[in-house]
User: What shape does this take?
Amino acid sequence: LNRRRKFYLAIYRDPRTPWVAKAILWLALAYAVSPIDIIPDFIPVIGYLDDLLIVPFSIWLALRLVPSEVYADHEEKLKPVARRMNHD
Assistant: This one.
């Protein structure tokens, strides 16, 4: 989970990442922590369903908008960190 967080942060900070992808990531984070929901959480099942659909879909969409070379660069940079963590 920490590796994914670092990966998303690195992509967000990269100047090659389109502003639209950055805006979608920012909005997904804001929606996840916001007390305001499209469907209130007190409605059984459906109340949490919007959170479970909107946030992952927003992250997926933002990552689709990131150029493949930016995605690959940051994925490659984080691989050595994962290998070191597995050997410790």
The helical segments are 2-13, 19-33, 46-65, 68-87. The chain has a mean pLDDT of 83.
